[in-house]
Amino acid sequence: MAEVIKMPRLSDTMEEGTVAKWLVKKGDKISEGDILAEIETDKATMEFESFYEGTLLHIGVEEGDTAPVDQLLAIIGDEGEDISSLLNGKEDSKDSKEDNEKAGDSSQPEEDSNDSDTDNTDVPEGVEVITMPRLSDTMEEGTVASWLKKVGDKVEEGDILAEIETDKATMEFESFYSGTLLHIGIEEGQTAPVDALLAIIGPEGTDVSGIKEGKSSGSKAKSADAPKKEDTDKKESSESSSQKEQTSSNTDGGRIFVSPLAKKIAEDKGIDLSKVKGTGENGRIIKKDVESYKPSEEKAQPASASTEKATTSQVQAFTPAGEVSFEEVKNSQMRKTIARRLGESKFTAPHYYLTIEVDMENAMTSRKNINELPDTKVSFNDMVVKACAMALRKHPQVNTQWTENVTKYAKHISIGVAVAVDEGLVVPVLPFTDQMSLTQIGSKVKELAGKARDKKLTPQEMDGSTFTVSNLGMFGIQEFTSIINQPNSAILSVGAIVEKPVVKNGQIVVGNTMKVTLACDHRTVDGATGAQFLQTLKQYLENPVTMLA
Hints:
The chain is extended and about 100 Å long. The chain is α+β, with helices and mostly antiparallel strands. The chain is built from eleven helices and 28 strands.
């Protein structure tokens, strides 16, 4: 009897998994307990073993692919066993889902169509209504800087119809249709919202009066019905300015026809427009001509003294090289989970931050003395973890968890220590930290950090923290804030120990200080409570011998 193996839920927060590696292949004999694959969860890469014996008849998720929990992962059964019914059942379900999605998709345009036909305007066959396009992600309205076609002109697909000024730049707008320009809905210099009637293209002689009336009633350009004299003067001035932008003189004194956008790009790149060949109408230089222009090498010719003087006074225009490009890297399950959980924490828990500066002179001396003992190694981070555990004993309000109906006070103290790995961040936990000695904390942190970097941490080793410590001091970071690792109510950010002038007994002396910042959830930890916790923490760190009591 064939057994269907589904994508397992290998952690409490796992929603999907990625097959990092298959350790068996189709046709292999499988015994109970054999490792089938390594599966990357939201927390670690874990080995997944078989609970069945038989032959691997089918692999449902290939290496590198991601699938949700409970999706078909593999099928194990007797060699040669017919599993078509199992596969067909899975495919039928998938096809059904796709059919439903297609059905849902097909209904959408129908709704959109109904929405767009609210003006009851019938568009004759072959006629295309062009609306103000959305040429940038933030564009809400556009201004027609200039029309490059006029009513009655023939238009081919790809021809530039107009130059439209958006909220970011002046851009050329090309036609996606062929025909005759039958109507212009927005005159030069006028502004209209996105989707307002811009133009109508269709067979020559087609009556579009009904379309014009229907569309104009829905959205009008920002212009008066009867322009005043000053408006007319302003428009003529605008047209004159636009014409100036579209033309310039070449080295022989002739006119160069160029679009405003092309001219701006040429200025930015330091390109001489007299050397650019235009491919637009009447030899007009457009955007693509400037972007594709490559200056040819010209033979150096003797220059007069006046020319040389002029050249030396000019700064060579910067011409950027290369191209804008991106590389897409697939998000790992760990990275997805980090993003989701930290986002939930930041936007659901009201964070606030408290920072203190700790005198680390005594801590440095104590650590040196401890590490002189045989087979003993204690870090400053170990001392901070121990001090936090001791302080939590005195301030149980910080050792809490928020729920909608109750606040949970943890009677135990288990501190999570943030560890950076290649894919992101994991937080192994030290159970009952307050009962551990400094050397036990140091040994356990070292062990868990090694397992984290080797992706060997189990979910149990990352579960159950009541407080978290994040230390970036080893990277030279002096001060930072962290996002609370829910369901904890607080997290401590530990900076580097810095040698600096300090005042002691009224004298300026060289000291060593360290800044720590406590991020608190205001739902459970009030400001005064957080401040009192930091005062206690400071006392322990400045007098490490008190932690041994």
